[in-house]
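Can't paste images in this forum, so I'm doing it all in text. The chain is below; anyone willing to post the predicted structure tokens underneath?
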Amino acid sequence: MNVILKQDIPNLGHRDDIVSVKDGYARNYLIPRGYAISATKEATKVHEEILRQRAHKEEELKEAAQKMAEELKDISLTIGAKTSTKGKIFGSVNTIQIAEALKEKGFDVDRKNISIKDDLIKEIGNYSATIKLHKEVHVDIPFEIISE
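Text version of the structure:
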């Protein structure tokens, strides 16, 4: 069954994408929760018209995201964490702390758009995070965890 997504769904697609999913997933999860609508001929025509009207605005957003990505490429973050004498972190470093460090540098990025390549960061060292600024624009940011 083909559906038109109304919002971004992780591991499935972005808003306004037409994706093919299993019938049960569409009927029992996506459509009742308002995440998608069925891609009938009428809905597809309306969808194409909306995309045509929105194309110019979307291009401006993409250009702004690319500009911000160019600025972020040169950024390197240092995040302090409380550690034991052996270098183990009490707790872990997560996307909230990276978002706060970026905010201190003057970049307002939502923590939901940040993903850390290593799931849990439990030791001092150098790591990398991916920031999704637009559905087509991603930038990798190196960051270092130091002991406070």
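The chain has two domains: 2-61, 70-147. The longest helix spans residues 41-72.
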